[in-house]
Write a structure and sequence with these properties.
The chain is α/β, with parallel strands linked by helices. The protein has one domain: Nucleotidyltransferase, domain 5 (2-Layer Sandwich), CATH 3.30.420. It has six helices and five strands; from the N terminus they run E-H-E-H-E-H-H-H-E-E-H. A five-stranded mixed sheet has the order 3-2-1-5-4. Helix 2 links the parallel strand 2 and strand 3. Helix 1 crosses helix 2. The longest helix is centred in the first third of the chain and has 14 residues. About 9% of the residues have low confidence. InterPro entries: CobE/GbiG_C (IPR002750), CobE/GbiG_C_sf (IPR036518), Precorrin_MeTrfase (IPR051810). This is Cobalamin biosynthesis protein.
């Protein structure tokens, strides 16, 4: 899939998950999607995990921002692999996939969730075909608009 813009990595992690575990899992997901760290634009997670040392250090190591979303926002995102266990634990049926997709209008999963012992990651981006295209607009040039462009602030 050709992408229009950077990839967002959604991260679900238990409290105390170290950055190296998140980074290892992220590298596996990127490689499986034919991507590498240079494609990342940000990490996203549950707001209650956004201050945890592991996700914070992972984002710092990658040089990308970390965005935290409330459980209610993540719960409203349609995902292919919801989990009743995750919903019971944190109030949303998905963290990694939902966080990857949140804030990406037209975004799609590039890689579904992938889990380690204490973390889960998923990748999302906007496919090039889904990116809105700008339509240039032009107005006719008249003597008055040309004069105004040449002499701004002077009435015509």
């Amino acid at each position: 899939m050709e992408l229009d813009g950077p990839v967002t990595a959604g991260v679900g992690a238990r409290r105390g998950t170290p950055a190296d575990e998140i980074l290892r899992l992220l590298d596996e997901a990127l490689a499986a999607a034919g991507l590498d760290r240079s494609h990342l634009g940000r990490l996203a997670t549950l707001d209650t995990r956004a201050g945890e040392p592991g996700p914070v250090a992972a984002a710092a190591a990658l040089g990308v921002p970390l965005t935290g979303y409330p459980a209610a926002v993540l719960a409203a995102v349609d995902v292919p692999h919801p989990s009743a266990a995750v919903a019971a634990a944190v109030g949303t049926p998905s963290v990694a996939e939902a966080a990857a997709l949140a804030g990406l209008p037209g975004g799609r999963l590039v890689a579904p969730k992938r889990a380690s012992a204490r973390a889960t990651v998923a990748l999302a981006a906007v496919p090039a075909a889904a990116a809105p295209t700008a339509t240039p607009t032009t107005a006719p040039v008249t003597a008055a608009t040309a004069a105004a462009a040449i002499r701004p602030g002077v009435p015509t």
